[in-house]
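Q: What would this complex look like in 3D?
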Amino acid sequence: MSLTNKEVQHVARLARLAILPPEIAEATGTLGRVLDYINLLNELDTEHVLPTTHVVPLLTTWREDRVEPSLPPQVAVQNGPEVLSQMFVVPKILDGGAG
Amino acid sequence: MAIIDWDAYDTAQKVQSGEVSALECVDAALERIASWDSVIGAFLHVDAEGAREKARIMDSTMTREAKAALPLAGVPVAIKDNMVTTDMPTTAASQILKGFRSPYNATVVERLVRAGAILVGKTNLDEFAMGSSTEHSAYKVTRNPWDTERVPGGSSGGSAAAVAARMVPFALGSDTGGSIRLPASYCGVLGIKPTYGRVSRYGLIAYASSLDQIGPLTRSVRDAAKILHIIAGKDPRDATSIDASSVSSEVGPVQIQNVRIGLPEEYFGDGMDSRVRDKIDNVLEQLRSMGARLVPISLPHTRYAIATYYLIAPAEASSNLSRYDGVRYGQRVVGQDLVSMYESTRAKGFGHEVKHRILLGTHALSAGYYDAYYLKAQKVRTLIRQDFENAFKQVDLIVTPTVPDLPFKLGEREQDPLQMYLTDIFTVTTNLAGIPGLSQPIGLADGLPVGLQWMGPPLAEDLILSAAGRLESALTLPQWPMLGGLDR
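A: Here is my prediction, written as structure tokens for the whole assembly.
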């Protein structure tokens, strides 16, 4: 199997996803099988192949540095779960944050 | 024929000529939705009053000349619920976006509205477009109109089912690995995934940004051309949109004898349902009798496409979905500190399949695995692209089945994600290569629709549509499409 419970737990922490022990076991099994399948790619020698990051050749897109019409701040924050004076309110991050 | 039987082309023409009002067209769509959507489940949201109001305004304030300038005058449309709209909620079929109301419209929505289309509702999908059956929606199940015990395909299953069931003449979907073409095939409608960059992704909720494209689901080839013409084009708000001459709004004529059509051996091997194979063989014979030159070709890296896709797409998704953290929009689960708020919000808001893909993608990008997984997949992506580049030196277009099988039963593949993933085996390759692909209905097998896929080089949409149009006029389809076993 290409994956362990410990790795899933580690990845869940990286992804900021709370995960319960039964979910860890289930994800380890399912994703392990997917990774086993994905190992098919190792049949191919790709040492001298360049990676594709984008299918169309893209140059950096430039535009004038000019103010364009945009959303008013009160509209831009209207979906916030908790908003105060056009700012998003979050739990405090300095003291006791598990970071 | 009743109003609901018309395609977008006829509907617009009759509204422009004054034969029917926009309100009559919208009412016909809404009545159809009211009678059948409790069975089909195509819609997550219907805005009947808003749609009627827009139709009334069009009817009462616009002159015949003004309507004539609108290519989609009075045409009802449904939009997959992963494209943002100001007039209706947008959820991406996820709990995490419950209650979200976008302060702006997606570019495609703006373009359709400017062309005179009237938005009647938002359609169901697999959560964040991650799935092949529309069973991964957090809200409801969508059923295939041809057999309501079967899936409509996914992830644009709501859009495909709504068009097949004649609730709307056309709808928009999005396609990351087959999400327009697979449900189009399973529901017996047309669906086109344009060349990457053809259509602006501004306002499309991102799944895998290097693969996602928006496209129409329709009941006629001429509608596919007309709508693609309207939604395609460079958009300053999407830096990856390309500045190419547009898709023609009309299906051009084509000398099919001059078109070399490639048949990749890898798409015609074992594992294809014999009923699908028979249908495809018949159509190939028909193309041959019309004078098309059918050329055997090889796309040798096809068998690696699903593995490549399931590294690249989840990797990009894990990055794109990091924005759902309970801070700026969507649901929030209060935690004792910021990190526990993030973790609990995401644990509660995302469904099972989405969590799995985030975990898979994060793993593929994490320290120690990046080279073995993500970089490896990007390199194989190059090989898959080169397969197509080589093939298009020999042939003008490629034809394959869209899906190797017929629509499967609800629940049949839910327990086995790998089997579900393999449903997309013939469609993911075009996303990885960035080329256009169209699924065209070619008839029924055991009462279920079969789709034929056309693929072409980048920006070859016009040729694909012309060839599909030529085939469409030669096919004797059953009254197409009809609502499967359901009564009218």
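A: To summarize the key features: Chain A has a mean pLDDT of 90. Residues 5-42 of chain A form a domain with the Histone, subunit A fold (CATH 1.10.20.60).
Q: Very helpful, thank you.
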